[in-house]
Design brief:
With about 425 residues, the chain is mainly alpha-helical. The chain contains 20 helices and 2 strands. The chain is about 60% helix and about 0% strand. A hairpin with a 3-residue loop joins strand 1 and strand 2. The radius of gyration is 22 Å and the shape is globular. The mean pLDDT is about 95. The structure holds nitromethyldethia coenzyme A (NMX) and D-malate.
Length: about 425
């Protein structure tokens, strides 16, 4: 497999680089932790490492050093399309350089060869109660495939530690290959009376998802590839990435680990915010029977805050400016459907809500994150069932978290085990300070 060869070729240098850093500079301090951080969700505590993506508070995400506009320009695309192949993005995440068209297509081909979803996965999803949330269905589907883990079986056969990354890559490729069909199956089962659309082996991974969803507008294929690129990774401290990394650090395989990550993504302060955000926009739209005036919108936003709720899609734990993932989606909407009512409303929210949050003075960032607009774009193409949106986030996020745990294994990262203290101990430290 191309990805395997490419990673293998880099391993000696990477292992030596990390070994040297730890051996020669292991006791150099990179930060300190204070009591507020311990009680405050470890904000800004520098305790993780990844070379796959980095989030600068003012600039936003870079994937392997590339900004989103750079990636949209440089990654290979299907002919006549504006969004890159997802296979090319995965190559970049794992290998660290922009692939050629042939290299991107080699990843796409590898996924095609592994894409058949075993019948038992569909049976398990069908056996769940009808009112189960789509993310629960998705996470369950990922988890149940654990029985096929190559990593788990090779571990029990006694594989050597420096080989761990290889079956982690094997499992990740199989898991990712199956995700578009599993997600589209959940969508069609839950909202389209179970009328399934067979996979089209002629299509790339992202377009095939769009096809199986049953959205007739071909531009939805471009949006799907864009969506999967944007949501794939956001360095290592966010809940889904950290949960996946933590679980994988005990040498759980990717099925156990990614399913755990999905369960974290399902929280309303994390990935579920895209569902919440569209619900909030529709709440505004219903209340004012259409796109409201700016004053009406301002008053709705204040009502939300006064009722003790957050405005979904706004604020961020790291970012202090508009999320470039928001900007990329905003530009897509502006180009293709500027007159769409829900898109116009999401744009108006961008004009109004940062001012409201600034006036309230609580949120450290009043600016939009990735979730503030993604639903408006889906809604335009007829994917109006917004409790499905976090499944799409999950499909994408598994690209990033799997790339990370493959490299965790390659570089021999140990089991994660931070130290906790008691409140009395912290009081004692405070008293002595
Ligand atoms: N609406 C209202 N209040 C907010 C918002 C918001 N959008 N963002 C932050 N605050 C509040 C926050 O609840 C906290 O209040 P309190 O002191 O009463 O606990 C205060 O402002 C300070 O919070 P921050 O330090 O600015 O934010 P934090 O780092 O704790 O949390 C989020 C970050 C993203 C969880 C938070 O901004 C939020 O809840 N946003 C809305 C939900 C959302 O969009 N989540 C998606 C994030 C992206 N993703 O996909 O994961
Ligand atoms: C993410 O994409 O994971 C979110 O923006 C949350 C985060 O980075 O904290």
């Amino acid at each position: 497999m191309l990805l395997k060869e490419k990673i293998q070729a880099q391993l000696p240098e990477w292992r030596e680089r990390v070994r040297k850093l730890v051996k020669e500079h292991g006791d150099i301090k990179v930060g300190e932790v204070n009591i507020s951080q311990i009680y405050g969700g470890m904000r800004d505590v520098r305790g993780l490492v990844t070379d796959i993506s980095y989030v600068d508070p003012n600039e936003g995400i870079r994937f392997r050093g590339y900004t989103i506009p750079e990636l949209l320009e440089k990654l290979p695309k299907p002919e006549g399309s504006e969004s890159p192949y997802v296979g090319g993005l995965y190559y970049l995440l794992l290998v660290g350089s922009i692939p050629t068209l042939e290299e991107a297509l080699a990843v796409e081909e590898e996924w095609k060869a592994r894409s058949e979803v075993p019948q038992y996965v569909f049976d398990v999803i069908r056996a769940l109660p009808e009112d189960v949330h789509p993310v629960t269905m998705f996470s369950t589907a990922v988890l149940v495939m654990q029985r096929e883990s190559v990593f788990a079986s090779r571990y029990h056969e006694g594989m050597k530690k420096d080989e761990y990354w290889d079956p982690m890559l094997e499992d990740s490729m199989t898991l990712i290959a199956r995700l578009p069909e599993i997600a589209a199956f959940i969508y069609r089962l839950k909202y389209k009376g179970g009328e399934l659309i067979p996979s089209n082996p002629e299509l790339d991974w992202g377009s095939n998802f769009a096809h199986m969803m049953g959205v007739p507008d071909l531009m939805y294929r471009d949006l799907s590839r864009l969506y999967f690129l944007l949501h794939s990774d956001h360095e290592s401290g966010n809940v889904s990435a950290h949960a996946t990394h933590l679980v994988a650090s005990s040498l759980s395989d990717i099925y156990y680990s990614a399913s755990a990550g999905m369960n974290g993504l399902a929280g309303p302060l994390h990935g579920l915010a895209n569902q919440e955000c569209l619900g909030w926009l529709l709440g505004v739209y219903d209340q004012y029977h259409g796109v409201p005036s700016k004053d009406e919108l301002k008053s709705y936003a204040w009502d939300t805050l006064k009722s003790g709720q957050v405005i979904p899609g706004y604020g961020h734990a790291v970012l202090r400016k508009t999320d470039p993932r928001f900007t990329a989606q905003y530009e897509f909407g502006l180009k293709h459907f500027p007159e769409d009512d829900i898109f116009k409303l999401a744009t108006m929210v961008y004009d109004v809500v940062p001012g409201v949050l600034t006036e309230q003075g609580k949120a450290k960032s009043p600016w939009p994150n990735v979730d503030a607009i993604s639903g408006a774009l889906q809604y335009h193409y007829g994917v109006t069932e917004f409790d499905f949106y976090t499944v799409m986030f999950g499909v994408s996020r598994i690209l990033g978290v799997s790339a990370n745990v493959i490299w965790d294994r390659a570089l021999g990262q140990p089991i994660e085990r931070a130290k906790s203290l008691t409140t009395a101990m912290l009081e004692e430290i405070a008293a002595k300070a």
